[in-house]
Design a protein that fits this description.
This is Sel1 repeat family protein. About 70% of the residues lie in helices and about 0% in strands. The chain is mainly α. α5 runs antiparallel to α6, α17 packs antiparallel against α18 and α31 runs parallel beside α33.
């Protein structure tokens, strides 16, 4: 309320005046009883107000008094409100209600002086008290003040009775329309009555009253407050347009603006861009500065970018703050420098919307701190988008460390103001447990609310949550349905998530549909969709064939789009190419810093695969991979260094083992058990082996079984030994099969002898080429203790084992040769040289030589002795 100082001491103007206008001054009115029972009032009219509507002796101005009012009007028009007040006050002292009415208008309109609606209400009330020809007018003006709470406390019940009085007095202004509006919406003490409201509107509509025509058109349109009747709604809308066109023809730009609104996307006459632009141009040509900016905005919406920008620039240059804001917002992604200039000008002139756009632009640009400051200024005025944007800024880590608790505070405020994006973000916060305790029910309720408000991103979040099955229960079909709805609404993240689910799960594989969705999202610039496509073609999953060329193409596009994970994914493709023999791709991946690729390249140099074998290069790349945290490289480098640098080797192996590398655990377990490269520590060795054995590693199970046989690091336990060795055999390990076969055949270390099973295991291993199994069978057939003696068959097994380099088999055969030639005292080396010479020749000749050798009794006996060693 504006404050004004007056010279009249009897009329207070502070808060006491407002109370007087809304309460005590009302009892000054007196007369007869209210003429209507006011059936729409849900509360009785307080007794102190009833005098407002009582009738008494009418009091009207005489000729001389009318001249005084005329002089007062002339004084006010001449800019002399004091004189006007003096003249009118002289008449109020004589009890003329018309003088109070004129004083009320003077204070209400504020043309000749500062507006004072509280004093206006006081004088209107005094004018209503006594019947006169202006009583209805005073009642109508006073009703407007009480309806709007302007200068007085809002009072719908009192406004209702004042409007009814104006209707009864047949003021013939807008009293019926105001009363219809009140009855349509209802208010405190007044119940809504749409039917009665419609009747009042209809009376005025028959007279061509514009607001009545508009109200009835809206009432019968889709979603209106009366029964939907499209034809009737269109009839009222067209009559409304006809009335506006008459005023537009007379040059009234306000009517032109209203006509443009009728043809807007949400207008009563439907979206007709050409008509809308026509009327906006007409208004602009008629000198309406707002229309110029509105026309520019409409042209932008219609895709006429060049003309739209030109009109907005003209309007903005003329000082149209809304045009500056619209222009700046439109240019943010196109010409950010110009956008910042226009938005800065609009913000300096008080546009909160411009301040929000500017803040978002600065946050994403070169000055995030200033951008946050702009948003916080707008947030202080409870601007919903500013609050939602601050919530987004503080929730994410892109520009600064996230502060989820601060973010949630902003989001809750924006949500309470009804901003759907804030509601979506708040739902996601409850879904992820960021800034608040995770609450699936609250998350779902908020996200569904946001979805109902048009936020397709909320549908996508819900769909993804149902597919993940972490915060919300796993429900793939529900997730699929929600993601499809979001994708249909144009949400690229939903297209990507649904496409990924069709290729990688958990939905049933639909490769064609998955690729289609991902390509659609990629065409809209979604870098992650490109990464998913590249990854799918790299792996050849979800029904897609492996195609490294397509994978490279998509990942190249993802790189160009700036997606963070594109480089790593491309490196994996190059690593895959390396695995298929493309050493250049592997080198590129390794040089890009991918630990796995560096480890692969180190192995390639170590084994000479695709490159010339080079131990130093192998060590260099494995070292780089190990330093980058690759456990496999640590394990391989550790094994590589065992002979040259055992201390460093053991450190690398321990680090790899602690990181879960099974090979490193096996190497360490064996080293500690055997005391090789490190001081023997059987208990430590068992500690490394047991987790691997329990996880199903056959070699670890075999070593653990052997430890239980020998009581090495654990108490000897034949039953445990057999169990672990059997586990190793079940996994298909040949060494375990040969080992357990020997133990069972001989009944070693307390394990019950089972000759049949032992021989079967040894024969299976020997048939699959295991030299140890061959050597064992050879010895056993020659010795004839656990198997029926068959020296010839035993020799055959020993020869096969010797051919594969088995040391004890070779030595046994060599000793037999020495004995047959009377050279028992010859060196071991001489015997092995002979054996190598025999086996390097034709295998059939070697076997024949061996059989001839065994025909010598001394050689056969020597072979038996050697086999028993």
């Amino acid at each position: 309320m504006n404050t004004i100082h007056h010279d009249t001491p009897t009329l207070p103007h502070t808060r006491g005046l407002r109370l007087l206008a809304s309460a005590s001054l009302l009892v000054l009115l007196a007369g007869c009883a209210v003429t209507d029972s006011a059936p729409q009032a849900t509360a009785p009219l307080p007794e102190r107000y009833q005098a407002w509507f009582e009738n008494g002796q009418p009091r009207n101005l005489e000729w001389m008094h009318k001249q005084t009012v005329k002089k007062a009007d002339e004084a006010a028009a001449a800019g002399n409100p004091r004189e006007a007040i003096r003249l009118l006050t002289s008449l109020t002292e004589q009890g003329f209600p018309q003088a109070h009415y004129e004083l009320g208008k003077l204070y209400d309109q504020g043309e000749a002086m500062e507006r004072d609606p509280a004093r206006a209400a006081e004088h209107y009330a005094r004018a209503v008290r006594t019947p006169s020809y202006i009583r209805g007018h005073a009642a109508l003006n006073l009703a407007k003040l009480y309806r709007e709470g302007d200068g007085v406390e809002r009072n719908d019940l009192l406004a209702y009775h004042l409007l009814r009085l104006a209707v009864e007095e047949e003021v013939d202004r807008d009293e019926r329309v105001m009363l219809a509006e009140l009855l349509r919406e209802g208010g405190e003490g007044v119940s809504a009555n749409p039917e009665r409201s419609a009747r009042l509107y209809a009376i005025e509509a028959e007279q061509g009253q514009e607001e009545a025509l508009r109200a009835l058109a809206e009432a019968h349109a889709s979603g209106g407050w009366l029964d939907e009747k499209p034809e009737l709604a269109m009839d009222y809308a067209q009559r409304y347009a006809d009335a506006l066109q008459k005023r537009a023809a007379a040059g009234e730009t306000d009517a032109m603006q209203r006509l443009a609104g009728l043809h807007a996307p949400d207008g009563l006459l439907g979206d007709q861009p050409e008509q809308r632009l026509h009327w906006l141009r007409q208004a602009a040509e008629g000198g309406d500065e707002d229309a110029l900016g509105n026309a520019g905005s409409a042209m932008l919406d219609a895709g006429e970018t060049r003309q739209g920008i030109a009109m907005l620039e003209e309007a903005a240059s003329n000082g149209d703050v809304d045009a500056m804001t619209k222009l700046g917002g439109f240019l943010v992604d196109r010409r950010p420098g110009e956008a910042r200039q226009w938005l800065t000008r609009a913000a300096e002139q008080g546009s909160t919307d411009a301040r929000v756009h500017l803040g978002r632009l600065l946050i994403e640009g070169e000055d995030p701190r200033r951008g946050v400051a702009q948003l916080e200024e707008a947030a202080a005025q409870d601007h919903p988008l500013a609050l939602a944007s601050l919530g987004d800024f503080y929730m994410n880590d892109e520009l600064s460390p996230s502060q989820p608790f601060i973010a949630v505070d902003y989001l809750e405020r924006a949500h309470e103001l009804g901003h759907p994006w804030a509601t979506q973000q708040l739902g996601e916060a409850y879904l992820r447990g960021r800034g608040v305790t995770a609450d699936p029910q609250q998350a779902e309720a908020l996200l569904r609310q946001a979805a109902d408000q048009g936020q397709s991103g909320a549908l996508a979040l819900l769909g993804q949550a149902y597919l993940e099955g972490e915060t919300l229960p796993l429900h793939p079909s529900r997730g699929e349905k929600l993601l499809q709805a979001a994708a249909d609404a144009g949400e690229t993240s939903a297209m990507t998530a649904l496409g990924e689910a069709y290729l990688e799960g958990p939905l049933e594989a639909r490769p064609e549909r998955g690729v289609q969705l991902l390509q659609q999202a990629a065409q809209q610039g979604d870098g992650y969709a490109m990464v998913v496509l590249g990854r799918a073609y790299r792996k050849g999953e979800g029904g897609l064939p492996q195609d490294l060329d397509k994978a490279s193409q998509w990942l190249t596009r993802a790189r160009e789009a700036g997606h963070d994970s594109a480089d790593e994914a491309m490196t994996r493709v190059n690593r895959e190419r390396g695995a298929q023999g493309d050493i250049r791709a592997l080198i590129e991946a390794a040089e890009d810093g991918h630990p796995g690729a560096m480890a692969d390249l180190g192995r390639a140099f170590l084994e000479g695969q695709g490159v010339q074998q080079n131990t130093e290069h192998a060590r260099s790349w494995l070292t780089r991979a190990a330093n980058a945290g690759h456990n496999g490289a640590r394990a391989e480098l550790g094994e590589m260094l065992l002979d040259s640098d055992p201390e460093r080797a053991m450190t690398l192996l321990r680090t790899a083992a602690d990181g879960g590398h099974q090979g490193a655990r096996l190497t360490l377990g064996r080293a500690y058990l055997e005391g090789e490269h490190v001081a023997a520590d059987p208990e430590q060795g068992i500690a490394y082996l047991r987790p691997s054995a329990e996880a199903g590693n056959p070699y670890a199970a075999q070593l653990l079984g052997q430890a239980y046989l020998a009581g090495n690091g654990v108490e000897a336990d034949p039953q445990q030994a057999e169990e672990w060795l059997s586990r190793a055999v079940q996994s298909g390990d040949l060494s375990a099969r040969a080992n357990l076969g020997r133990v069972l055949l001989r009944g070693e270390n307390g394990v019950p002898r089972d000759g049949d099973r032992g021989r079967a295991l040894l024969e299976e291993a020997a048939d699959q080429g295991h030299p140890g199994a061959m050597a064992t069978l050879g010895r056993e057939y020659i010795r004839g203790e656990n198997l029926d003696q068959d020296v010839r068959q035993g020799a055959d097994y020993l020869l096969k084992a010797a051919e594969q380099g088995h040391p004890s088999a070779r030595l046994a055969l060599a000793k037999a040769y020495l004995a047959a030639n009377g050279l028992e005292n010859a060196s071991r080396e001489q015997a092995l040289v002979w054996l190598d010479g025999v086996m390097e020749g034709d295998s059939d000749m070697a076997l024949q030589t061996l059989h001839e050798l065994l025909s010598d009794e001394s050689a056969a006996e020597a072979l038996k002795v050697a086999a028993a060693d």
